[in-house]
Design goal:
heterodimer; A: 395 residues; two-stranded parallel sheet; 5% strand; globular; B: 661 residues; alpha+beta; 12 helices; cytochrome c-type biogenesis (chain B)
Chain lengths: 395, 661
């Protein structure tokens, strides 16, 4: 049996089921929240989500069987797993609070993550020496599930902000909310531009020096920015406009930086098209759809997700991480950038939980904090691997 | 002190500074500003309105310090500062992460050289060792102090208040709760039904003259204090770590074949490096399933391993004398699989491949044109790998060859074919010329008292037996001498001598040794003290001469340094070895960190996954008042109440906070 084929079709299946489920959750907007009975569309939505999650589990297990190690060892596998975690976290929170509107936002986040992941190399790859440990599964899975639960806090916080912020006049708050939403467009931009050039089968090869070794890298998007100090090998393709600065570390920094530029560019175009059609801020466009959601409940979900996610994050991101680091390198803490950013995340949510003790930090302020926490998580996931060199700079 | 104490109308005497009466919850006049209750309809329920030292006394300097550190606001600020500082430390790599291939590993040069003006500022501010800077440590220490004071300031009064609380609560306390309802007519039966249902939901129910307090999950209130204890233990463990008694961290480089003392074990333990192994993934491995990935990524390391033997010193030894060693353990040290013995742990942390163990040189007359061999010494031995026995040696003088060489033990070696200048053409051995530039032979080897012989081909590149795998004997070239050769000498790079004297009286003096030779601005330098690219300045004193002929020799380098040299030096061979970098750790503080982590996890789970819920039922006339409070998860407590009052006349509690919005 070809596990790898089953695995990738299962992932596609999951992707489409989540997509359809999102539409059904969208249809629950009209449901009256006063009635505790679930509308039909909500039931279909959660059923599809559960089936999709099962499909993604099939992806996970078969890929594990194919490669012989848990599929959390490179960027594609890790981000896909994170997306799966977001769905799981949504399912858990859904069954506590029965809040369908969460699905309308949480599932697209999971979809964006999975699409983002698929832009990285998807081949199964062998484990480098340092990853050959059972702690790989234990540490990585706990961290990403914890981060996924913390992301639900962001989802609830974001809905809260869209629901509550006064859109009648432009203000600092509407501006920053729009910035957050634009951030999501960048991810969509990444997937769209990546998908288009992949379909065109675009390639441009560069030669450059990395850590003293001559390496080549294959750009799958036209090079706006080339690797630092590089030579273009492919003929008849666009020459890079400028080179990546030398301080960008991490494997293949130039190519990743190029992807970022394309993502922002494409995201901006999609965003502008959206604005042209709606003639309103994105936040203002969505706001009327959320009138029936209770802001207090959103606030509580946002806080609860942190309350559930924080202990888990401590366990996976700090304690398990330390045990593994002790086993592998003889020091449980070494101030590696990824470690530091895990600590930063931990400090942030610790501050969040303490602030909740004070009056005036519930509601909107709390929602902004939930967004900030998610930004830190994404920074740790993407930027630390891209810009800051370290032990975790895989993929 | 009794003047300071506040007596409530319910008769309970509260400590000074109490906001809500410990027993009945009635707001105590004059103290409402403390928790901001004077401006709000709803009561601030944190710490149950108990009297906290920090909010009560503010006269002496100690009071002020106490108040400062007990403030959550200060705590949060400290956390935020630590957060920002930690993040700053990742802008550029910390000094321990300066890459080994950097232009310079000296921080003073590296940061400015790599990151320009920002790097320079970063370095000058000391951010390159930010996490061990005094101010970062101070920040963490302040967080520690804040943890202790915050916890004490709150835990003690909260504990007392929850212990002293009465089921009967004052009406103002109830109607200023977030969840509250009033019902006019309720039968006793209905009330009992509600109580029974609350009990079923595992509430502990107290009944005082019809006043009901249903409570569950009070222990979750202690969660924060438990996890703070865990954190304090971790911080204390970090301080303990600074003592060498409890923690040591050392590093040792050990060559293959070398046995040396392990640092920071007081000379008690020795390590021997049997072999260092570096494996990479083979694309064909595991059914070739990683082929695509390996093609893209290039070589991927699979295993770093040192096969080591650990010895312990027996008894006392006199310094300088070889100690008496006893084998303790033998094992493989791999990444992710350290080797443990006694109180020490050894980690595979580094390696250096292909260092030079020794170099052999020959001294040739300058006029000797091409290298021509004068004689070859062969060694006959058995092919049995496990029991390799040398059977004898013989030397062939290439100018004066014999047909058969008889060994002392009766073996005979017959020269069947001789190729002075051997090369292979179309699978057949040929000779370019009759000059012995690359001699090779075909031999018949016969054991004593036997006519049966084995055919062997022997050249400078190695030997092949015609019998293949069944062969019993093997011939190898053990030594050779070139024409015009004055002699050879071998320098053991682990212990280079200053002078080598050859049999014929020739002396070679090492004037200068560059273990890791490189040229910088036309000057010879050594990049490190490790023999990675050895080079020498040598003085050769031929026999009956005390005039030194100087030469510079190294790998791919051979220059005379004095004019008119009669002799030149040639590299005749070398041996290589790998070196393993082993980290040696002794850490008695780990159990404290583990204990701290476990306590923290218990506390944080206790505080986050359980909730303290209280429901008060207060009879009033023919009806009753219901109020409820929880420290978190209001959704959950509302569901509990809904379930309890289902099918009764009692009004569902109303969320008064939602109404306020």
């Amino acid at each position: 049996m070809d596990y790898l084929k089953i695995s990738s079709s299962a992932l596609y299946t999951a992707f489409f089921l989540y997509l359809i489920a999102t539409i059904f959750f969208g249809a629950t907007i009209k449901d009256d929240k006063k009635k505790r009975n679930q509308g039909v569309s909500g039931i279909i939505g959660i059923t599809l989500t559960l089936v999709g999650f099962a499909a993604q589990l099939v992806y996970f297990v078969t890929r594990w069987l194919a490669s012989g190690h848990a599929p959390v060892s490179n960027m594609f596998e890790f981000v896909t797993f994170f997306g799966m975690g977001v769905v799981l976290a949504f399912i858990i929170i859904y069954f506590i609070y029965r809040l369908s509107i969460l699905g309308l936002f949480a599932l697209p986040i999971a979809l964006i993550l999975i699409a983002y992941a698929s832009m990285f190399p998807t081949e199964i790859s062998p484990l480098i020496s340092s990853l050959q440990s059972h702690w790989l599964y234990i540490h990585v899975t706990t961290v990403s599930i914890a981060q996924a639960i913390l992301s639900i806090s962001f989802v609830a916080g974001l809905i809260y902000l869209i629901r509550q912020i006064d859109q009648s006049t432009a203000s600092k708050r509407t501006f920053w909310l729009e910035v957050i939403l634009f951030g999501l467009f960048i991810f969509i931009g990444f997937s769209v531009s990546g998908g288009i050039f992949k379909a065109m089968d675009y390639h441009a090869e560069f030669q450059y020096i990395e850590q003293g070794n001559e390496t080549t890298t294959d750009y799958q998007m036209p090079a706006i920015v080339g690797p630092h100090d590089s030579k273009l090998l492919t003929q008849d393709v666009m020459k890079p406009w400028f080179a990546a600065p030398s301080w960008m570390h991490g494997a293949d920094a130039g190519r990743k930086f190029n992807s970022v530029i394309w993502s922002v560019f494409t995201g901006l175009i999609i965003y502008l098209i959206f604005r042209l059609i709606s003639r309103k801020r994105v936040g203002a466009t969505i706001q009327p759809l959320l009138k029936k959601v209770s802001p207090d409940l959103l606030d509580e979900v946002s806080y609860r997700a942190v309350a559930i996610g924080f202990p888990l994050f401590t366990l996976g991101g700090l304690i398990f991480a330390s045990i593994w680091a002790q086993e592998a390198w003889g020091r449980f803490w070494g101030w590696d950038p990824k470690e530091v950013w895990a600590l930063v995340t931990w400090f942030f949510y610790a501050a969040f939980l303490h602030l909740r003790l004070s009056r005036g930090w519930h509601g909107e302020k709390s929602a902004w904090l939930a967004v900030g926490g998610f930004a830190i998580i994404m920074f740790n996931l993407i930027a630390v691997n891209l810009i800051l060199a370290g032990l975790h700079s895989y993929a | 002190m009794s003047i300071d104490k506040v007596k409530c109308e319910c008769g309970h005497v509260n400590p000074e500074g109490t906001v809500l009466c410990e027993a009945c919850g009635k707001p105590i006049e004059g103290n409402q500003h403390i928790d901001g209750n004077d401006k709000q309809k709803l009561l601030n329920m944190r710490y149950d309105g108990s009297a906290r030292r920090s909010q009560t006394y503010n006269k002496s300097i100690i009071d002020k310090i106490w108040s400062f550190f007990s403030s959550v606001k200060v705590g949060v600020w400290l956390i935020v500062l630590a957060l920002v500082a930690s993040a700053i430390g990742t802008i550029f790599p910390q000094e321990q992460y300066i890459p080994p291939d950097a232009v310079s590993r000296d921080p003073a040069v590296y940061y400015e050289g790599t990151y320009g003006i920002f790097g320079k500022i970063y370095y000058q501010l000391g951010f390159h060792h930010l996490y061990s800077s005094w101010w970062y440590m101070l920040l963490i220490a302040l967080i520690g102090i804040s943890l202790v004071i915050c916890s004490l300031d709150r835990f003690v009064p909260l504990y007392k208040a929850l212990k002293r609380q009465k089921a009967k609560r004052h009406e103002t306390f109830l109607n200023r709760q977030r969840l509250y309802s009033k019902t006019e007519n309720v039968t006793q039966e209905e009330k009992e039904k509600v109580i029974a249902r609350l009990k079923k939901q595992r509430y502990k129910v107290r009944d005082e003259n019809g006043h009901i307090l249903a409570e569950k999950g009070r222990f979750s209130r202690w969660g924060p204090y438990v996890n703070h204890i865990g954190l304090i233990i971790i911080l204390l463990a970090a301080i303990l770590r600074m003592t060498p008694l409890l923690f040591s961290d050392d590093y040792v480089w050990v060559r293959e074949g070398q046995r040396i003392v392990i640092p920071s074990t007081d000379g008690e333990y020795y390590i021997e490096n049997k072999d260092f192994i570096l494996e990479t993934w083979d694309p064909e491995e595991a059914g070739g399933k990683f082929k695509d990935a390996l093609e893209k990524q290039g070589a991927v390391a699979k295993n770093y391993q040192t096969n080591a033997v650990i010895y312990k010193k027996k008894g006392d030894s006199i310094p300088g004398e070889e100690p008496d060693l006893e084998k303790v353990t033998e094992g493989e040290i791999r990444l992710n699989q350290p080797l443990k013995f006694d109180k020490y742990t050894l980690y595979q942390s580094g390696y250096q491949q292909n260092e030079f163990t020794s170099m052999a040189f020959n001294i040739l007359r300058s006029d000797a044109k091409d290298e021509e061999y004068k004689n070859l010494t062969f060694k006959l031995h058995t092919t049995d790998e496990e029991n390799d026995k040398t059977l004898g040696t013989f030397t062939i003088d290439l100018n004066d060859q014999k047909e058969v060489y008889k060994l002392d033990n009766g073996f005979r070696v017959q020269v069947e074919e001789y190729y002075p200048d051997y090369y292979l053409e179309g699978g057949k051995p040929e000779s370019h010329s009759d000059k012995p530039r690359n001699p090779a032979f075909v031999f018949f080897v016969s054991p004593p008292d036997s006519d049966k012989s084995e055919t062997s081909f022997v050249g400078l590149d190695g030997s092949i037996s015609a019998a293949g795998e069944d062969s019993q004997y093997q011939l190898d070239i053990e030594d050779y001498k070139l024409k015009g050769e004055l002699g050879t000498f071998k320098i053991d790079l682990n212990e280079p001598k200053s002078e080598y004297e050859l049999n014929n009286g020739t002396r070679v003096v090492i004037d200068e040794y560059y273990p890791d030779y490189a040229e910088e601005d036309g000057q010879a330098i050594s990049k490190s003290k490790y023999p990675r690219n050895p080079a020498f300045e040598l003085s050769v004193y031929p026999p009956d001469s005390d005039k030194a002929e100087k030469s510079f020799v190294g790998i791919g380098k051979n220059d005379p340094m004095t004019k008119g040299n009669q002799y030149r030096l040639g590299l005749a061979g070398y041996e290589l070895h790998d070196v393993s970098g082993i980290q040696v750790k002794k850490d008695y503080t780990l159990p404290f960190f583990i204990l701290g982590a476990i306590i923290f996890m218990i506390g944080v789970v206790q505080g986050m996954y359980w909730h303290h819920r209280r429901i008060w039922i207060h009879p009033k006339d023919n009806g009753l008042l219901v109020a409820a409070h929880t420290n978190k998860n209001w959704f959950g407590i509302k569901k509990d109440i809904e379930k309890a009052i289902e099918g009764t006349n009692i009004n569902m509690v109303v969320d008064q906070q939602e109404l306020e919005d």
